[in-house]
């Protein structure tokens, strides 16, 4: 029973899923899509380079880049597991289109991002929905990812204070551990994030800590491989650390970079009209 | 009938007749004192029940309304026309905030506040919830809101540009967060872009109902204005007068301040559930009093009829001696009124005596959940209102008068000869 008619109208009328998934996961997913544009080593001095520079460089590399990738997403739960196939296009850090291609049930479901704005399309309903802010924190396609912060990919630079806590050489490559502490007014719920970044801009691990500084979830790069002429993490797994036997895994099957993509690809029309 | 109470000085002179009737009535009342005492206790308990129950109900309604008003509307609110249908950040009061302040000050409305009230999502590391975000000026809001300032854990907001946020204790539990931790507020700006920001929880408030603790979060008005990019605008203005039952003066004063472009509403319009409730309750009290009286009246009429039957010969004698039938009628009616007045006095005293110790509130926390569903808090403060007491007493006296007319009428219509010779 709702007590006040007024109150009920003020409340957003959405069922808020309890999600214990990986909120920042979308950004991590997106970062991974974006950062695979790099994959090469660049001249730097491992002793004096700052975290700011490393991250800026990794992000700058993607500016203006385009990519097209096919990957699978496996959602694993203690009692079931589901694998979907997806097709994704990105252009710079602003535009992205991700579409399910399998299983048949989900095929055609697509998400479009233009700058900060996002839309989803469900062929069964034949509806395009502009994601309202209240849905952004919901789980995306039942995975450990949520929509949140897909819309911003450079917030590591904007909202965090970055520090390198560890530099080491593994197999002849420098690996930096970067601790990111969010600013006080940052729209970030984490206590801190920890990034393990290889000198060729591959994120090996990204850990999210709660405000008691206990690790809550982790994005791990399981395989590093070469696709479309670039070396990047081809298999990544998002693990909520407080829920054993839950994870979502992304596996890149094919990728191409710096290909000409037309403007109309990143439009609502294209969101609806892709392969069903 | 040995102890017939004849007046000591029977006089046919009309001048003495005025006190004769009350005197006879009084004596007759105590002739069968056991019956009278039983009847008095019945009336006393009945009247006590009327007043006591009314006080409890009024207390409950009062709490519900106080909560309802303090949780939102004040006595009256000023809104842009579409806000009620769509509480959206695009529906801003067209008048800038500073101008609103000026208007209220010049109109000498003392208690007012302007707010930004928008739906938002609050997230911690583990949970997120939909809430109503209130951007307030704590200095203005002090006397209006439902927040128990003495109970706030840590601190409440200090100024309109406070960078912290105050959330309900229940919400803090749900979000698994606490004072000192950060949460993220996400809402929408007028361009439909996402507006979000981290806030440090600076305090936890508690309210009468968990619903309020879960629904509202407080932040500084200026901080929210910056976050939502709305400049010097707000979504609502609230005014408060003295008595929530009497909103018209403050409503009229507020309405006079604004021309077209905004809607001024009373709290009874904003919260029609409570508004209707208030009206229904006044009717309910009357019905309650009448129902109890109906039960009482059977006893009353029965007593009077018995008293008349017992006295048939005596009444016949008085009639034969020259007493007018109207005097007989008056005598019986007066007798019943005396009975009622004494009963009412007992009932009123009982009611006062039982409500006074409960003034500090009756703890109903055992059934708190149920009370909350009704929108009432778990402490019940009985409320003795003079209107209700007067209503109960008047109803009893007036209806009692009519109820006693019938036996009295019958007594005054006896034929003296028949009555005197009537066998017991």
Can you put this structure into words, describing what you see?
Chain A is built from 5 helices and 13 strands. Chain A has a 13-stranded antiparallel sheet with strand order 6-5-4-3-2-1-13-12-11-10-9-8-7. Chain B is α+β, with helices and mostly antiparallel strands and 424 residues long. Helix content of chain B is 52%, strand content 17%. Chain B has a 6-stranded mixed beta barrel. Chain B has a two-stranded antiparallel ribbon with strand order 11-12. In chain B, α2 runs antiparallel to α14. The mean pLDDT of chain B is 81. Classes of the chains: A mainly beta (276), B alpha+beta (424). Chains A and B meet through α1 of A and β2, β3, β6, β7 and α10 of B.
Give the helix/strand layout:
The complex is a heterodimer of chains A (276) and B (424).
Chain A: H1 5-10, H2 25-35, H3 51-60, E1 66-76, E2 81-91, E3 95-102, E4 110-114, E5 117-122, E6 127-130, H4 155-159, E7 160-170, E8 173-182, E9 192-198, E10 203-209, E11 215-227, E12 230-240, E13 247-257, H5 268-273
Antiparallel strand pairs in A: 1-2, 1-13, 2-3, 3-4, 4-5, 5-6, 7-8, 8-9, 9-10, 10-11, 11-12, 12-13
Chain B: H1 17-29, H2 33-71, E1 76-79, H3 97-106, E2 111-123, E3 128-136, H4 138-141, E4 153-154, E5 164-168, H5 169-175, E6 182-188, E7 194-205, H6 210-215, E8 216-220, H7 221-228, E9 236-240, H8 248-257, E10 263-266, H9 267-270, H10 272-310, H11 312-320, H12 325-355, E11 362-363, H13 368-373, E12 379-380, H14 386-412, H15 416-421
Parallel strand pairs in B: 3-8, 5-7
Antiparallel strand pairs in B: 1-9, 1-10, 2-3, 2-6, 2-9, 4-7, 5-8, 6-7, 11-12
């Amino acid at each position: 029973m709702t007590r006040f008619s007024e109150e009920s109208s003020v409340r957003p009328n959405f069922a808020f899923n309890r999600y214990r998934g990986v909120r920042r996961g979308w950004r991590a997913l997106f970062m991974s899509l974006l950062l695979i544009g790099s994959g090469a080593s660049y001249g730097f001095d491992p002793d004096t380079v700052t975290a700011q520079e490393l991250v800026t460089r990794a992000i700058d590399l993607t500016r203006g880049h385009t990519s097209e990738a096919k990957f699978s997403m496996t959602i694993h739960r203690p009692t079931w597991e589901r694998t979907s196939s997806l097709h994704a296009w990105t252009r710079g850090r602003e535009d992205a289109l991700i579409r399910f291609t399998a299983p048949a049930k989900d095929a055609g479901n697509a998400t479009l991002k233009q700058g900060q704005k996002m839309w989803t399309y469900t062929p069964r309903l034949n509806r395009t929905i502009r994601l309202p802010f209240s849905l952004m924190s919901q789980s995306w396609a039942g995975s450990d990812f949520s929509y949140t912060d897909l819309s911003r990919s450079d917030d590591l630079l904007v909202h965090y204070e970055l520090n390198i806590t560890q530099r080491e050489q593994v197999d002849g490559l420098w690996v930096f551990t970067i601790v990111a502490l969010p600013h006080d007014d940052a729209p970030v719920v984490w206590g801190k994030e920890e990034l393990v970044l290889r000198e060729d801009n591959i994120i090996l691990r990204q850990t999210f800590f709660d405000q008691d500084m206990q690790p809550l979830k982790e994005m791990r790069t399981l395989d590093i491989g070469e696709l479309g002429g670039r070396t990047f993490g081809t298999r990544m797994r998002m693990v909520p650390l407080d829920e054993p036997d839950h994870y979502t895994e992304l596996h890149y099957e094919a990728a191409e970079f710096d290909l000409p993509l037309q403007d109309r690809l990143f439009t609502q029309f294209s969101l609806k009209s892709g392969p069903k | 009938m040995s102890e017939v109470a004849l007046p000591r000085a029977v006089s046919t002179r009309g001048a003495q007749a005025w006190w004769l009737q009350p005197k006879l009535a009084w004596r007759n009342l105590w002739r069968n004192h056991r019956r009278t005492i039983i009847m008095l206790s019945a009336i006393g308990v009945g009247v006590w029940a009327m007043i006591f129950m009314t006080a409890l109900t009024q207390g409950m309604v009062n709490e519900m309304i106080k909560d309802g008003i303090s949780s939102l509307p004040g006595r009256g609110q000023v809104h842009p026309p579409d806000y009620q249908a769509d509480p959206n950040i695009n529906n801003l009061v067209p008048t800038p905030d500073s101008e609103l302040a000026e208007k209220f000050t010049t109109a000498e409305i003392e208690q007012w506040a302007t707010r930004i009230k928008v739906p938002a999502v609050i997230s911690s590391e583990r949970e997120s919830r939909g809430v109503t975000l209130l951007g307030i000026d704590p200095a203005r809001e002090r006397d209006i809101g439902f927040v128990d300032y003495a109970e706030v854990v840590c601190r409440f907001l200090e100024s309109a540009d406070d960078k912290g946020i105050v959330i309900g204790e229940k919400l803090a539990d749900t979000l698994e967060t606490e004072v000192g931790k950060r949460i993220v507020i996400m809402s929408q700006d007028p361009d439909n872009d996402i507006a979000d920001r981290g806030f440090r929880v600076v305090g936890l408030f508690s309210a009468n109902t968990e619903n309020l603790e879960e629904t509202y979060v407080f932040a500084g008005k200026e901080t929210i204005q910056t976050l939502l990019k709305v400049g010097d605008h707000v979504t609502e203005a609230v005014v408060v007068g003295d008595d929530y039952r009497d909103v018209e003066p403050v409503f009229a004063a507020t309405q006079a301040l604004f021309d077209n472009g905004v809607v001024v509403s009373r709290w009874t319009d904003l919260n029609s559930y409570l508004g209707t409730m208030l009206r229904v309750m006044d009717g309910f009290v009357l019905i309650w009093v009448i129902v109890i009286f109906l039960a009482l009246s059977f006893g009353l009429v029965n007593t009077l009829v018995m008293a008349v039957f017992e006295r048939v010969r005596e009444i016949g004698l008085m009639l034969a001696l020259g007493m007018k039938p109207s005097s007989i009628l008056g005598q019986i009616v007066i007798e019943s009124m005396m009975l009622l007045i004494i009963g009412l006095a007992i009932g009123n005293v009982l009611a006062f005596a039982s409500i006074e110790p409960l003034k500090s509130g009756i703890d109903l926390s055992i059934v708190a959940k149920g009370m909350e569903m009704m929108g009432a808090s778990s402490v019940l403060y009985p409320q003795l209102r003079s209107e209700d007491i007067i209503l109960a007493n008047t109803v009893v006296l007036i209806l009692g008068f009519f109820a006693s007319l019938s036996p009295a009428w019958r007594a005054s219509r006896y034929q003296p000869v028949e009555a005197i010779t009537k066998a017991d």
